[in-house]
Design goal:
Layout: H1 3-14, H2 30-61, H3 67-76, E1 85-89, E2 93-99, E3 102-111, E4 117-128, E5 131-135, E6 141-142, E7 147-148, H4 153-158, H5 191-198, H6 201-219, E8 221-225, E9 231-235, H7 237-241, H8 243-252, H9 262-288
Antiparallel strand pairs: 1-5, 2-3, 3-4, 4-5, 6-7, 8-9
Helix pairs in contact: 1-2, 1-9, 2-6, 3-9, 6-8, 8-9
Length: 304
């Protein structure tokens, strides 16, 4: 069977509202049933498109395409919007102050509709029609893979894809702007435009999967310098061998896999959550299509 169809079926294992039989049940009234059908059709088409992007990225980077929906499920439940965005009327804000040690964050003091004083620490994304759009995520994470929207994260995800002339920061005269891996689309240089640009699920996917490939091929390796000054690349083979390992490197920047350190605990927790999603998707896929090639090697932990 076509790989895209297999990945799509895997996604349905994580997103039951998109399954063909999602609305085959009793509803309290006809309007609710029609709404269910509308959601099912919309989500079904959206996830088909996502499956295609996952397969393309997996082929380009040599990564398991079934990893991507399990990963996206952990990051955003595969929602495409600005999950951390909060709206506050500008007229209700009484005071703003920068957060010490976090130059991109501001503390907003405001009064709600009941006259109660509130405080929120967030990043101001945009301001329009007397509304402040605030991002409560610490690094401006957006989209299905919660890609960071700042000028640091985009270069990090794109650096090895671009030529040397293209790795300078966008908007300068020192080189060409950054581009989306695979599609070669130019990434806007200003934050508001870049943020909306990266919300696109296909672009979000191609940047995130490039970051995962970077974690495997670059972050799992270090440069070792000998006494004569020569440098050699030393790679952690265990880190590179399986996505369960380099996924932790992507998230923490560390190869530590122990409960004895904060990095190690975060590494294990991140991996555990995505592995749970992976098994859930595989369980549904192998129930629907038992002869799928991936089912021959996948072992259901529940069968132990």
């Amino acid at each position: 069977m076509d790989l895209v169809q297999l990945v799509f079926t895997f996604i349905l294992g994580l997103q039951p509202q998109a399954r063909p039989n999602a609305c085959d049940r009793t509803f309290i009234n006809e309007n609710v049933r029609l709404h269910c059908i509308e959601v099912q059709k919309s989500e079904y088409a959206r996830f088909q498109s996502l499956a295609e992007s996952f397969v393309i990225a997996g082929s380009v980077y040599g990564l398991d395409p079934f990893l991507f929906p399990a990963w996206a499920q952990k990051e955003s439940w595969m929602e495409e919007g600005e999950l951390c965005l909060r709206e506050i009327p500008a007229s209700r804000v009484t005071f703003r102050e920068e957060v010490e040690g976090a130059s991109h964050m501001t503390r907003f003091h405001w009064v709600d509709v009941f006259g109660v004083s509130r405080t929120v620490k967030a990043k101001l994304v945009r301001e329009a029609n007397n509304i402040l759009y605030l991002d409560k995520c610490g690094h401006g994470e957006i989209g299905i893979f919660q890609i960071r929207d700042g000028t640091y994260e985009v270069p990090r995800f794109s650096r090895n894809y671009l030529t040397q002339e293209q790795i300078n920061y966008p908007g300068t005269d020192r080189g060409m702007p950054f581009r989306i891996p695979i599609t070669n689309e130019e990434i806007p240089s200003t934050n508001p435009e870049r943020r909306l640009f990266l919300l696109d699920p296909r672009r979000n996917t191609y940047l995130a999967t490039r970051a995962m490939a970077f974690a495997r091929t670059e972050q799992c390796c270090t440069l070792s310098r000998s006494n004569d000054g020569a440098t050699t690349q030393v790679c952690d083979n265990l880190c590179m061998s399986d996505w369960r390992n380099y996924l932790g490197m992507y998230n923490t920047g560390s190869t530590e896999r122990t409960l004895a350190t904060p990095y190690g605990r975060k590494w294990l927790t991140y991996r555990r959550r995505i592995l749970r999603n992976y098994n859930q998707g595989m369980r549904y896929l192998c129930h629907q299509i038992p002869d799928a090639y991936v089912c021959a090697t996948w072992h259901d932990p529940r069968s132990n």
